[in-house]
Amino acid sequence: MAQDIVVLPGVFNALSAKVAFDQGAKALYITGAGVTNANLGVPDIALITLGEMAEQANRVTQVAPIPAIADADTGYGASLSVMRTVREFERAGVAGLHLEDQASPKRCGHLDGKELVSPSEMAKKVLAASETKSDPDFLIVARTDARGVEGIHAAIERAKRYVDVGADAVFPEGLTTEAEFEAFRRALDVPLLANMTEFGKTPIIPVSRFRELGYNLVIFPMTAFRVMLKAISEAYGELLAAGTQEGLLPRMHTRAQLYETVDYPAFERLDSDWSNRVDRRST
């Protein structure tokens, strides 16, 4: 963030994280919606557990040696639960997480009908997170969903309160215009995270414009997931209709490309090297 705005592609498992890293990503966003949808096949309504999210985060950090911010929903409980949440995500190796001020069960930030906890309850969670983290560089990002419930001014006031108790950055969710993003930037002097999701309340805004608006982090939580889902839906449909995958071959990664993505040759070389060294020692 000190050098430039940071683009964080959304990832939902280890392979998606590795592909994003291989394509040049400098940081990653571990999407709660993507992990929930992909692994449980259910909506993003707080059905996934802390343990399941932390496990996926750990898998991501094992294969992609770049900073990752994790979606921690509402913290998986009250302030004492937030304390454990921070510890588990730090142990998983991520660079930070975000907590939101929705009441549980939460809803997607771009849907209507959300309910919020009180500003005091959320501030208590942020304080707990801030005082629990062991690494001073671990980012505690406070997300507020208040724009769609209480209005832009109330959302800004909530964000200020969260910063006062230790939030390192703010994530204003569900903003509808560039002017609203500008209003948050004028009101706060901490790093700001923008959610550039598709098909939601926020219009498509390029990273270059977010840079002009003074934002520091831009996440694309479900972009690759949605592309993947359309591709596999079409592939399954064509396979079942045609009874052969022949027509799909031009749209596939080859076996060699897959093996390259997962570093198959590197694992074989490593195993062979260990065998050779053991054999040399035994002669």
Compose a concise summary of this entry.
This protein is an alpha/beta fold and 283 residues long.
| Largest sheet: number of strands, sense, barrel closure | 8 strands, parallel
> What is the total domain count?
2
Helix content: 40-55%
Secondary structure tally: strands: 8
Q: Report the order of strands and helices.
A: EHEHHEHEHEHEHEHEHHH
| Terminal-residue CA separation | 54 Å
**What is the overall silhouette?**
globular
The CATH superfamily of the largest domain is Phosphoenolpyruvate-binding domains
On the 0-100 scale, what is the average pLDDT?
96
- The number of distinct helices, counting runs of at least 4 residues, comes to 11
- Estimated radius of gyration: 21 Å
CATH topology of the largest domain: TIM Barrel
Unreliable residue stretches:
none
CATH architecture of the largest domain: Alpha-Beta Barrel
Briefly note the structural class of the backbone: alpha/beta
Strand content: 5-15%
Describe the structure.
It is globular, with a radius of gyration of 21 Å. The protein is an alpha/beta fold and 283 residues long. Strands 6-5-4-3-2-1-8-7 form an 8-stranded parallel sheet. The N and C termini lie far apart (54 Å). Helix 3 (50-63) runs parallel beside helix 4 (79-92) and helix 5 packs parallel to helix 6 (152-164). The protein has 11 helices and 8 strands.
